[in-house]
Amino acid sequence: MHESIQSCVFKNGWLGESEKKLFGRQRDLHDPVEMRFGITLERFSATLQHPLPGAQWGGIITRMALKAFENNTIEAVVTLHRTRENQFFSQPVLAETAQEIYDSRGNKPVLSPVLRSLETAYRKGIKKLLVIGAACHLHVLRDFQERFTYLQDMEIFTIGIPCVDNIDRQRWPWVLKRMSRSPLSAMHMEFMQDFRIHIRHTNGMVEKVPFFSLPQELSDPSIFPVACMSCFDYLNSLADVTVGYLAAELRPDEKRQWVLVRTQKGKTLIDAIRNELTCYPEEGKWDCKKFVMNTAEATIASMKVQSRTYSPDRKIPLWLGHILSGVLSLAGPKGIGFAHYSTDFHLIRHYYYVRERFPEQLERLVPRHVRSILEEYDLPL
């Protein structure tokens, strides 16, 4: 616990020197794409030609981990399994067999102590390790690697997931019950590019809930942990390779995922399965300024409210929500435009969350590129 606090991003800040140490430089403030997505060697969308059964989408992260294990690039994986009592709850695990790695597939949208298994790996004498985690985990890991000689003796590969809106485990059942008609059968959940939440159930059915039709009480920032609302590394910029969905075209039958290769280690991981992928270039129009500005004012206003009673009723009826989602899916940003919009939305939201609640932390927490992005929109600092 003491070591984790010493290396926590809320002590050391997001990105900045950590990015410089990993890449030899910080992201270019004159490059609008690199400012949002971080430093990369290559970016593309891809599908696994043979998707893994039971994976959240196609299973690229799990397949990379399995392949790295099969070809002896690594000896074990620091990751998460689902708990027996809840599909969405997680438990940290050091996966040392192919089956244990395979069992780690699927998103767990609750706060998770992934790095708890790092000490187990060290005590077992493992020298080649893969760590799969969110940005906060990998920031801590990078600091651990610098501070502790016993980790410097390990060769560590990292796969990052884009992450921002986790839920406290105690509150998750309450949140899921307000999202889904059948919370007990839900097994996968994600906010998607069609402006709907996709909830996959144990019978294979996918329930789609428009963002606009969520109960008003789910608009309360307090349902998210303070740490997640203060996150400024949505796209996991210190990972060797980041895999998500934001800039991938939404084709449910293809389960496309977005791959951001950041380091040579990341290239090693993706190259090992490249012949198993069908790859596509990034698509979509970059510009989304009008779309961001349409939501910025309301977003900033909601971050200023620190005490409010929210209604349990839906914001708008489901049928109207589906119409709005359909219109935005056609007319709104797509591909890299959607990734641009989603990144900027979260950076704006979190900047004003911190400014209103923890103004003394602004200098420490907020990376320099966030202010450049706010200036693009002429938003007050």
Automatic annotation (TrEMBL):
Domain Coenzyme F420 hydrogenase/dehydrogenase beta subunit C-terminal: 127-276
Recorded GO MF terms: oxidoreductase activity, acting on CH or CH2 groups, with an iron-sulfur protein as acceptor
Residues of the Coenzyme F420 hydrogenase/dehydrogenase beta subunit N-terminal domain: 45-118
InterPro entries the UniProt entry points to: Co_F420_Hydgase/DH_bsu_N, FRHB/FDHB/HCAR-like, FrhB_FdhB_C
Origin superkingdom: Bacteria
Protein name as catalogued: Coenzyme F420 hydrogenase/dehydrogenase beta subunit domain protein
Source organism phylogeny: Bacteria, Pseudomonadati, Chlorobiota, Chlorobiia, Chlorobiales
Pfam families noted in UniProt: FrhB_FdhB_C (PF04432), FrhB_FdhB_N (PF04422)
Organism annotation: Prosthecochloris aestuarii (strain DSM 271 / SK 413)
